[in-house]
């Protein structure tokens, strides 16, 4: 997200409040003025103020949103689609739900990075103290002894240092990888590469696919709700997907639709959704409730993606904690064994 772009939760709040005011009969320029007065966030205030000025000069709502320069292009495109179909209020409501869900997903993704980062930092600190402070003490003690005891102790100490340094190197490599991912994720191209990597990794492949399907369904739902034709809606939703397998399935859907299949049938046949959800979409299309079913599926897939991220976080933490426990335990046990032998000899 650019520095001068509203956050997902801010976009959601802006669209939600604007929709309520428009539904109450308040003119768009007056609504923008009220939003500017009711906020203490500088960027939010500037956005509302700029929108009001553009509206007073005769711009449409979508043009005013574009002139602000703080809304994602997707929002501008959706508002324009809503204006063209006469369903601006409904589109703003859909955008509010969409960006609220996006905010939740972003928080989950942040948690997926922050918690492992904290654990890696703790692991590195413990291992550094162990190698720099604890092991040298045992080494000094064993050096004072002579004979067979000292010889056997030296082997244990070397093994303990080996385990400790190995664990520290692995920890630092994982930390470097995490930093690399954070830096790479700052650019669109970098995020696309990371998405391709996560799609291939066994630990993250399932969550990656569920995130892509949730994003696709949410976008498709909003475009269909705005009255846009299904071909345009599918193209726009495809543009929000950076998951290779899902993207290929959507491309096959386009080919199928060009041969006469409906949207729901194409999605079902190409298995973009799981069979159960695909049949829900088919039933909704046949009964004339495609818009409502898509909205429901969007909520279900977003929740499913949240659960997948929770499971990913829950699986990473025990792995890192287990690695730390084993590394420290083996290291300490290696230096304690000679001490037990020495105490036995003294006794």
Quick tags:
347 residues; mainly alpha; 2 domains
Walk me through this protein's architecture.
By secondary structure, the protein is mainly alpha-helical. Helices cover 83% and strands 0% of the residues. It has two domains: 64 residues, no CATH class; 246 residues, no CATH class. Helix 6 runs antiparallel to helix 7 and helix 9 packs antiparallel against helix 10. It starts with 7 loop residues before the first helix and ends with a helix.
> What percent of the residues sit in helical stretches (DSSP H or I)?
over 70%
Order of helices and strands: HHHHHHHHHHHHHH
Largest sheet: none
Global morphology = elongated
Which structural class should the secondary elements be placed in? mainly alpha
Number of domains: 2
Strand content: under 5%
N-C termini distance: 68 Å
Q: Would you spell out the secondary-structure blueprint of this structure?
A:
Elements: H1 8-23, H2 28-37, H3 42-56, H4 61-68, H5 73-85, H6 88-143, H7 148-184, H8 188-200, H9 205-225, H10 230-238, H11 244-258, H12 263-269, H13 275-286, H14 290-346
Helix pairs in contact: 1-2, 1-6, 2-3, 3-4, 4-5, 5-6, 6-7, 6-9, 6-14, 7-14, 8-9, 9-10, 9-14, 10-11, 11-12, 12-13, 13-14
